[in-house]
Structure formats: C-alpha cells, structure tokens
Design a protein that fits this description.
The protein is an alpha/beta fold. The protein folds into two domains: 211 residues, Rossmann fold; 93 residues, CobW-like, C-terminal domain (Hypothetical Protein Yjia, Chain: A,domain 2, 2-Layer Sandwich). It contains 13 helices and twelve strands. The protein binds zinc ion (ZN). The site of zinc ion (ZN) has 5 residues, from loops.
C-alpha cells in the first residue's frame, strides 16, 4: 500500500486566484481532513498567515523567492518537517505566481518521501492574454498540468474563453478544464484523483531556462513597510498610478481609520478589503486560536511585522522602488 503523503500542486500566474481557490478548499475540507499547506510568495511579505485560518490546517510559508528554483531546498525541508511532525493526510503546495509547475513537480518527484498528486493550474481568463505574452512563465505554466481551472469566466465573452482554451489545448489536447467564477472547485475533483501522475519530460532548454527564469522574465520584487498610519485615498491614488509593468501588489495597509486593509492588485485592477487581526501584534493570539499552530519557515520568523507591508511584483520594476516608497510615505499622516 502506498503510504506516502500526497502533494497537490496549485500553480497559476500572479493574481490568477490560487489563494481564493485554496481558501474555498480549506473551508470545505479543513474540518474533515488533516491538511498542510506550503505557500510560496515571491516577495518577502507574509499575507496569508495573517488571514488563513481553519481547523486541522498547518501552514508553512516560503517567502522571498520561487519554489521551483531559488527555494527548492526550503521546500524539501518544509515538506519533510510536515511529514515527520504533523503527519498530514495531504499537503497542498501553492506555488508563487512566477513558478513553473513542471519544474516544481520534477523536484517533488526527486524528493522521494512524498507522492506527487494533481498539478492544478489556475488561469485568470480576464488577464490571461495580457500576461501570457509578457513572460515566458505565463506561457509555460499550463504546459504540464493535470487539470486547468479557468477562473472568472463570468467576466469575459465566450470568444475570449475559446481563445484561452485554444492555448491550453495546444499544449495538452483533451486536458480536463473546469470553469469557475470565483475559484470555487469541488474538492472531490481535486483530491479524488486516483490515476497515474503526468509524466513530465523537459527539454534541455527548459531545464536551463528554469534556473534563471525570474531573471529571464525580468520579474522583480520590492516591498514597502511603514508603521505609521496611511491615508486611504492617497494609497488608492498610488495604486491607480502604477504602470502596466506592475503585475501584482499584495499585502496590508494600516489606514487612518484605524483599520487594516488587504490590498489585492492584479494587472491594473485592485481592491482594498477591510480585514481583522492583521497586525503583527495580533499574531500571537491568532496562532493560539488555530488548532495547530500556524508556522512560518524557521528562518523567516525573526523579522518583525510592520503594520503596513506591501509587496510589489512586476516586470523590470526594481528601479521604481524609490519613487513608490516616496509617494507612499507622503501618504503617512502627520
Ligand atoms: Zn522558480
């Protein structure tokens, strides 16, 4: 009998809706199955450890890099620790939006102490045609996948969906595709897979590219941190002014009304949602409420959490860091 813990890979481009999909899964399955999640953020801002909560869930975060290339060692360590200490029934690996799931899968196969299960790739049909042509990884993510989730299908025409499907089927004719409005997918489909895992064969070029894919795609990240409250409308103006090279902004803003807002910016569209329990000061009580402690990878626990923390991810945006910092700092209330 195969007793290795199954690992489900959830991948998809920056802002495609992976976290929303996983949150739905946790709501539906969390109380019944002992799940562990390894979340990878390319930036150094921890977002979901502040908002994901639930029964029977352990989460580890791998920050500040990409789980298919720069953080492979951290992934192996995290998976091993989870298998040995938490003994979950299933592990979900949420790749960073810049990760190539095929490379990630090959690495997981190589570890040998877990069993790779489904590779699921989430595609945001609203933004797909924009990001596919900007980066190599956006084009390649769905090349090796067992299941494609087309997210936000209600917001585009059938023609747009057909064009996305043409692209998907070009790599994988006949691959199962699920349509979703808000990242909601039946957990029985995702976790009920009993077939053989997809064989992944990569060309030398693909392997070579994989080590440096962030540089080749010029994907750059910077963070903004501030402990003074910010004026909400001023932050909104900064978000509205970002160029099309900014693909993703994610994190928390502590605003002048005393509230925390979760910022979710994807390819020019954004929302700020008021959230609770998101300050660093509240983390202890939050952890105490979880059935199992929510953990971060050990080398990342030492950094103190600022009240406002935003990660900016985009193509060649590194040089814009100082300008954005300056503009956001002018949003601080005197
Ligand atoms: Zn990578």
């Amino acid at each position: 009998m195969d007793t290795l813990v199954p690992v489900t890979i959830i991948a998809g481009f920056l802002g495609s809706g992976k976290t929303t999909l996983i949150n739905h899964l946790l709501t539906e399955v969390g109380g019944k199955q002992r799940l562990a999640i390894v979340k990878n953020e390319i930036g150094d801002v921890s977002v979901d450890s502040r908002i994901i909560r639930g029964k029977n869930i352990v989460m580890k975060e791998l920050l500040n890099g990409c789980v298919c290339c720069t953080l492979v060692g951290g992934l192996e360590e995290s998976l091993k620790e989870l298998v040995e200490t938490v003994k979950p029934e299933r592990i979900i690996v949420e790749a960073s939006g810049a990760a190539n799931p095929a490379i990630l899968a090959v690495n997981i196969d190589r570890f040998g102490f877990v069993k790779r299960d489904l590779i699921v790739v989430v595609i945001d049909v609203v933004n797909f045609e924009g990001y596919r042509d900007k980066t190599m990884v956006g084009r390649l993510q769905h090349k090796f996948t067992d299941l494609v989730v087309l997210n936000r299908v209600g917001e585009v025409s059938e023609e747009v969906i057909d064009r996305v499907l043409d692209d998907v089927y070009e790599f994988r004719p006949g691959i199962p595709v699920i349509r979703s409005e808000t990242g909601r997918v039946d957990p029985q489909i995702l976790f009920g897979f009993t077939g053989k895992s997809t064989e992944i064969t990569l060309t030398d070029d693909e392997i070579k590219h994989s080590h440096h894919h962030l540089e080749q795609d010029r994907i750059e990240v910077f963070s903004f941190r501030q402990d003074r409250p910010l004026d909400t409308s001023c932050v909104e103006r900064v978000l509205n002014s970002l160029s099309e090279n900014y693909l993703r902004v994610k994190g928390f803003v502590w605003c002048n009304d005393g509230s925390y807002y979760l910022v979710n910016f994807v390819c020019g569209r954004w929302e700020m949602e008021r959230v609770e329990d998101s300050s660093g000061a509240d983390m202890d009580s939050f952890e105490a409420r979880a059935d199992f402690p929510l953990q971060s990878a050990s080398d990342q626990t030492t950094r103190s959490v600022s009240k406002t923390e935003l990660a900016f991810i985009g193509i060649g945006i590194g040089t814009g860091k100082r300008v954005i910092e300056k503009r956001l700092n002018t949003c601080c209330l005197k």
